[in-house]
């Protein structure tokens, strides 16, 4: 329950203490991302954002359609939420990082959110052993490519790979 907001969950992560972190899309306000943390018994966790619920407005160019696709927990308890912002042809892969208390991590990228400058959709996030963050998705345009973007632990892009997604038919 996010109050007077219609939202749908798209991904879940299980914390070591049995709490669940849910991420989703806000149907009434397409520029906002929804995050909730539930206790093991299913109740909202008041230790997360004061009431267990958080709505994150985009800091990446105003109100744009936002869809979250994945959530990952870092070993230090920080929460990564990845997805897509924008509408064709101006899609942007994004990731937001939250502190364990539900506040945006101001030490990550710009205001706690990273958005790509490429026209691409984001679908997944993973954390490497060195703390670097991998974002996966696809570029959008006349040719579709699979894309991997690596961020430093502080949220700065340090590697982008593009792979042609249509492979030759076996001959």
How would you describe the overall organization of this protein?
- By secondary structure, the chain is mainly beta.
- Helices cover 0% and strands 48% of the residues.
- It has strands at 7-14, 20-26, 32-38, 53-57, 66-73, 79-85, 92-98, 113-115, 120-127, 133-139, 145-151, 157-164.
- The strands form 3 sheets. It has a 4-stranded antiparallel sheet, with no helix packed on it. It has a 4-stranded antiparallel sheet with strand order 5-6-7-8, with no helix packed on it.
- The radius of gyration is 16 Å and the shape is globular.
- The mean pLDDT is 82.
Secondary structure elements and their pairing?
Elements: E1 7-14, E2 20-26, E3 32-38, E4 53-57, E5 66-73, E6 79-85, E7 92-98, E8 113-115, E9 120-127, E10 133-139, E11 145-151, E12 157-164
Antiparallel strand pairs: 1-2, 2-3, 3-4, 5-6, 6-7, 7-8, 9-10, 10-11, 11-12
